[in-house]
Each structure stands twice: as C-alpha cells, then as structure tokens.
Structure prediction request, 104 residues.
Amino acid sequence: DKYDTNKDGFLTIRNLETLLIDDMGLNDEQCQLYFLLIDSNVSKTISFSEFKKWLRSGERFQYIDKPSKYNLITEAMDMFKKYDVNHSDCLDTKEFKQLLEELQ
Prediction:
C-alpha cells in the first residue's frame, strides 16, 4: 500500500523509485534496471504478480552485487535504448536489423 500510491494494484517507475532509491538506497540506473527486469510483460507498470514472482525468485539484487553481471546488463540496456529510436520499449524490425549489423 505504501508504494502503490493510487491503489490500482500496479507499481509505476515512480513507485518503484520510492522503494528502491528512497528506502533501499539504490541509484537511479539500478532502479531502471530492476524496473525492466520485473516488468516482464513490458506494460510500463509492475503488477502484484510480477513483483511477487521477482521476490520469490531469490534474485536478491545479485545483478547489481556482481559487477561483471551488472556491467553486461547495463551495456545491453544502453545498446537497446540506442536502437529503440521511437522509444517504444520494443525494437521493430528496422531497429533490430540495425542492432544486428552493429554486432557483426
């Protein structure tokens, strides 16, 4: 209830920031990473079931505790953002082709 401020059963990025940044001491980049990881259906909100699934996964912030994993994930996020030119949080065919061409 503390984080779901509008009581709709979903967490927005702002709600998650309150939890992860204000209450747990993570930074903004780490919060963004976890929002993307937890929001499994890319709805730009986190449902109670998505949050519960993440909590039960036992992940416990290991993506940020291990620098090598964290660096790989942030590099992948940065690359994704670079090619998601229309900011849809999805890569269309053209964007994906451009990404693949750079990787070759």
